[in-house]
Write a structure and sequence with these properties.
alpha+beta; single chain; Jelly Rolls; about 190 residues; five-stranded antiparallel beta sheet; six-stranded antiparallel beta sheet
């Protein structure tokens, strides 16, 4: 097989990888907390471990500050120890998009919340009257579990719901760049020969 055909085959291979990678973007984790039943100091989550303090699972008429939203988590449970929630699974190193709904306690305080996954972290503040609203971040990380930590300890935490994590595929442009480099390498070898 001559070098021109090799270059063409390499370009087709990398281009097809770029197309298939872009089409494989999918949700890899999701939780809306509606599988449980409302309870103070709740710890029976299917996808989460409470690693510090406590959280409350509220809503659906049980301490329901956001009616019509099903169940959701008060990140500062009822023991005066703010909660830390960690997923039961670890995510690999890569680029991710995370979205979730975060709202104020609706009870007259301000809460600071840390969100982290591996080497990535961010801090958010919610005032008491802030609505339950979507938040979204795209980031690269070394991997690890997803963690939500409410600072405080007054039994009145920020409200968390509807978490979705999606893997972000390598952009098609990156695959085209790699295929171009491979093609140049083959051409370089041909000219040296």
């Amino acid at each position: 097989m001559n070098n021109n055909k090799k270059i063409l085959m390499i370009g087709v291979l990398f281009s097809s990888l770029a197309v298939s990678t872009a089409s494989q973007a999918a949700v890899i984790f999701q939780d809306n907390f509606n599988a449980g039943s409302g309870s103070l100091n709740y710890s029976s989550f299917a996808n989460w471990t409470i690693t510090n303090g406590t959280v409350d699972l509220i809503g659906n008429g049980f301490f329901d500050f956001y009616p019509g939203n099903g169940l959701y988590v008060d990140l500062d449970g009822s023991t005066s120890q703010a909660g830390t929630m960690s997923t039961n699974l670890n995510f690999a190193a890569g680029t991710y998009n995370i979205s979730f709904d975060l709202g104020g306690s609706q009870r007259g305080d301000t809460n600071s919340i840390n969100v982290s996954m591996g080497s990535w972290s961010t801090s958010l503040v919610r005032n008491s009257g802030d609505p339950l609203a979507p938040v979204s971040f795209t980031f690269s990380t070394t991997g690890g579990s997803l963690v939500f930590h409410n600072h405080g300890g007054d039994n009145i935490g920020a409200i968390l719901d509807n978490i979705t994590v999606s893997a972000v595929p390598v952009p098609a442009a990156a695959w085209l760049f790699v295929s171009a480099l491979a093609g140049l390498g083959v051409l370089s070898r041909r000219h040296k020969a």
